[in-house]
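Continuing the batch. This is chain 6 of the set; chains 1 through 5 are on the previous pages. Same settings as before, nothing changed between runs. Recording input and output for traceability.
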Amino acid sequence: MKVSQIKYVRPEKDDIIAKINETKEKFLQAKSVEEFLEIHKQFKKESNAIETMASLASIRFTLNTADEFYAKEQDYYDEVMPEIIVALSDLNRCYVESPFRKQLEEHFPKVMFQILEMQIKASDPIILQEKVEENKVCTEYTRLMSEILVDYNGEQIPFPSMSKYFANEDREVRKSAIIAYAKAIEDRKDQLDEIFDRLVKIRTTMGKKLGFENFSDLGYLRMQRTCYSKKEIAQFRENVKKYLVPLASKLRAKVQKEMGWDVQHYWDNGVYTKVEPKPFGTVDQIFEHGRKMYHEMDKATGELFDKMYDAEAFDVISRKGKFGGGYCTCLPDYKLPFILANFNGSLGDIDVLTHEFGHAYAFARACEMDCMTEFAMETAEVHSMSMEFLAYPWIEGFFGDCTPEYKFNHIGGALCFIPYGTIVDYFQQQVYDNPDMTCQERNDFYNKIEKEFLPHMTTEGIPAFENGRRWQRQQHIYESPFYYIDYCLAQFTALQFLALSQRDWKGAFEKYKKFVHINSDLDFCDTLKACDLLSPFEEESFKEVVKAVEDILKI
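Output for chain 6:
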């Protein structure tokens, strides 16, 4: 069945909560672990049906945020999901406090119980109203960013489509595009400030209601950090500054010299080679080669690509009113991932296709899991970022003679991303640890750390950005606090898969499959150990990864 043909029926809140409470009573009355597991099996089936409808509504809203029906459905979920999550949290206690806990741990992974305990604590009914408000304000931000049209060269261009100009071979084109893009943010700075300010206040209230000093500890609970804390992230941040920032600066200096720039401006940030590598062919031709790639990669990836393509589970054309980012979600009843992207003719089109398909591959695996929890975010991003590198043997089919330029851009971009991603997380940590900061103090702090982690670049002359507002273009800062460091941890791991694949692609892919298949049973750190991968929390690991990247890039 095609995604567009799936019938949407709103799951009513009262019915959902009644079913959750009914299941809870059955769990409490279960006389054996076998009876408990049978109840679990039935509830999993029912919860999958609910999740399928919620995902379908979200998909259709993001495909067209101006669609009145699905906009109202999004408002509905914003309103009711916090209450449903509270009820689910109460149900989850039946697992963690079960008299059959020991036997259940033989059936479910132990990490599931750790995550459930975190979810219970983070879903206390005392913060229900704040969670409703948080959802509504995040949707307000999504709508605002989806509605932005950038006035550029006499055209009104959707915000995400502007990125196709950012790596243009003509420096003046890049400059004018970045300035127009940044001006669109500057023109909405008051709205963006006001929305973020409300989110900080709402989240701080939640943290304090749960007995924390601020939101930070609650944020870590929500991100399901089971094997590391702020202490390890702070150490990671220091190692990024010590090892990766100098390497990124060395790479950017090499690019600057080859390009003959006196100063490296922000509009030079996306350029690594004199020739801009662009995928050739139409969208249909890109997907035709994508099908070939995934069939040759592995039987499972080929079958999944066919299933998604035939179900029209890819929507990649940018248009007015469409959600501006990219994502992969899942429709559990159909065991079907769905990918949204915004192709714009740049190399990023292939990056997003391979990245989101990595998520889809893991989602397909998750559909087979008999578990109450999903992959943690840093783990999920390893799935996607590593898939980008594992696609290299087929990249020539997308880029032809520009394949070497694509790889240099892609690897260089991956390296330089980690300092930027670290800035995003550091900024959030500072904001939520100090919730009374003014808008100007936030911008000043962002400017300060941007100069520390990206010393090779200047934002001088760019509206909004030169005043420390570049963070306002990053949707995760508004919608997903403390998510962004997961990308950094994952990129660090994905670079290891890159290095392994350069020596032995088949061996690297087998290790990748192992990573995807066992990490439902282990936390992130233990999964790394089980796969003989380096930990991002150890200084020696940074030395090895830096050496590997230097050798690959020949810098």
